[in-house]
Design goal:
205 residues; alpha+beta; 6-stranded mixed sheet; globular; disordered N terminus
Length: 205
């Protein structure tokens, strides 16, 4: 009975070597070159500092880029996600009810920057239809203009690409090297355990 349980545990460990961990959908910090779309969210006075994350691949639109970078997005009750009313729950209902269009004195402004970085450009279309530039930057900044004539300010973070970083234990792009050391260790444990059982049975005989 003990031997069978021991073998079962070893089999589970061996299977874990083949399955691996589930890949994360987003990474903290700017994307490396060719690694996706960098999303910058500047909460303004709603949070102590901006948040920068990487949305992998090529998101379908600006809202998808936000979501794939790990941000929670709530739209207007009237217009849905055509209007990004809250990002990660901000602003709260005391600032914006999200029943119709966002107010003229508290809203999210939407920006783009080229893959080479440089200067933020105000988006000329809504985030639900705008197509992020592959490898580019998407920016969101919470604005509280003092009057309707005040222009929104871009995120207080420069769109800067991270240098390409060496990824350990990678043999092919996107594929991690097989953990042969762990597999060999499991096999050795199984063999030694089996040998011990055989020796114990012979002594009893």
């Amino acid at each position: 009975m003990i031997a069978s349980r021991f073998v079962a545990v070893c089999a589970l460990l061996l299977a874990a070597c083949f399955t691996g961990a589930a890949p994360a959908s987003a990474a903290e910090g700017a994307c490396p070159e060719g690694g996706g779309v960098t999303v910058v969210v500047d909460f303004g006075d709603l949070a102590p500092q901006p948040v920068i994350r990487c949305a992998p691949g090529t998101p379908a639109n600006g809202i998808a880029a936000l979501q794939e970078a790990g941000f929670q997005v709530a739209g207007s009750q009237k217009y849905g996600l055509a209007v990004a009313c809250r990002i990660d729950g901000k602003p709260g209902p005391d600032v914006e009810s999200c029943t119709g269009m966002p107010s003229a004195t508290a809203y999210w402004s939407y920006w783009h920057a080229a893959p080479t970085g440089g200067i933020w450009q105000s988006s000329q279309e809504g985030a639900q239809t705008a197509k992020p530039i592959p490898g580019g930057f998407e920016g969101w900044a919470f604005a509280r203009p003092k009057s309707a004539n005040d222009l929104p300010a871009p995120p207080h973070v420069a769109p800067v690409r991270q240098p390409v970083r060496a990824v350990p234990d990678v043999s092919v792009a996107g594929e991690t090297e097989f953990p042969w050391g762990l597999v060999i260790g499991v096999v050795v444990i199984v063999v030694l355990g089996g040998a011990g059982i055989v020796v114990a049975r012979r002594r009893r005989a």
